[in-house]
Amino acid sequence: MVRVGIDRIAFYTSNQFVALKDVAEHNQIDPDKFALGIWQENMAVASVDEDAVTLAANAAETIFADGSIARQVDQLLFATESGVDQSKAGGVYIRRLLGLNQNCRVVELKQACYSATAGLQMALAQIRANPSLRILLIASDIARYGLGTPGEATQGCGAVAMLLTANPSILAIDEVAGLHSDDVMDFWRPNYSDTALVDGKYSTKVYLNTLKACIADYQARGGELEFQHLCYHLPFSRMAEKAHKTFCRESGNRYQVEAFEQNIAAGLIYNRTIGNSYTASLYIALASLLDNQEVEANARIGLFSFGSGCMGELMSATVVAGYRDALYSKAHHQMLSERTQMTYADYEAAFTYGYVVDGSEQVLPKQTTGAYRLAKIDQHQRHYEPTNC
Ligand code: HMG
């Protein structure tokens, strides 16, 4: 059977961040609560001329920028839970910004942090049936809970773009997967709110129970728990430790909790300094693992995707020989090293920036250093453009 999976993977995050020790100091909280309690150091803060659409376009631009990958795809799937319109798919703007062909299917997908995985599986099923297809999947989000809330330290923003093909250069994804869904209210965002509502401690329980159920379903469908590495959805980095303890228990202790440093820790490096990027988070963890650790060819990676509300999926994948040549590790490291640290006051100002909602014109200051930006809002329409125009 034809191997299908990830041929390219690139991520993008805002060029500015706030240190969680500054957030702790402002809120009069012990900074160790964030550093040791949830394993988070910094949090990416979106510029005022940045949204889920521009983050996504900037992630994908990394794949196409050097011209070696043709700007030609059969589908553009856009996964987000912080989309900019109830009707128009963000991917429609992104296709135009990237200069992709117009004879392509574009749609937006939603189920909290899980929807990129739904997009991945839908795309791969089509590629198995028609191996000539090239599908661009982009997951992009800005996580917002509100200033001074318990969720504040678990905000962040980022996007990941993946080119999905047959005979992929990086990761082949297996067909078997373990699934679980339940109708619960652990985290949600009503249409009228620009911040998420969450029952924080309950949400971590739902996450872990969903992982357990996905492991059971994965095994029931014939999946083998034989992984050298695991990547988990990361609302905050320490969630991986909690998840891995559950994984070890559920797999009959065939996995060692002590092996965490060796098999999982490299996947947390980017999250620790970006924060939650909702739909993109699991796949930024995957990029973090591949960029920052020598993973052996043919190593098997377990991937756990979770979206509150809830939906979970456990997948397995095999690393393709020579995968390093297809990575954008250097670009990722450079992007993170060139970010600017904000003061708490600047972060607060960015967080509370007021966007017009009355149809009047609002020209946005140039802040992002990404290739694409939100230039203005006028007559309730968003105007995106290349940053250098
Ligand atoms: P909290 O309730 O304020 O924190 O917020 P806490 O009191 O539970 O403390 C956190 C940990 O830090 C605890 O460790 C403390 O003991 C420790 P644990 O009990 O977990 O082992 N701690 C300290 N450690 C060292 N020194 C100290 C110190 N103080 C405390 N001085 C919470 C934590 C994560 C609940 C909050 O940030 C929150 O509500 N976040 C948003 C929700 C979330 O991230 N949920 C995760 C699962 S749901 C999910 O993943 C889906 C999601 O991505 C959304 C989607 O699907 O769309 C969120």
Output the keywords.
single chain, alpha+beta, Peroxisomal Thiolase, Chain A, domain 1, 9-stranded mixed sheet, 3-stranded mixed sheet, globular, binds 3-hydroxy-3-methylglutaryl-coenzyme A
Outline the structure in words.
The protein is of the alpha+beta class. It has a single domain, classed as Thiolase/Chalcone synthase (Peroxisomal Thiolase, Chain A, domain 1, 3-Layer(aba) Sandwich). Helices cover 32% and strands 26% of the residues. The chain is built from 12 helices and 17 strands. It has helices at residues 20-27, 32-37, 52-64, 90-98, 115-129, 200-220, 239-250, 260-263, 269-274, 281-292, 329-337, 344-351; strands at 4-12, 16-19, 42-44, 75-79, 105-109, 135-143, 156-166, 171-181, 187-188, 197-198, 229-232, 300-307, 311-319, 340-342, 362-363, 372-378, 381-386. The strands form 4 sheets. Strands 5-4-6-7-1-8-13-12-11 form a 9-stranded mixed beta sheet, sandwiched between helices. Bound molecules: 3-hydroxy-3-methylglutaryl-coenzyme A. The site of 3-hydroxy-3-methylglutaryl-coenzyme A has 29 residues, from helix 2, helix 6 and strand 12.
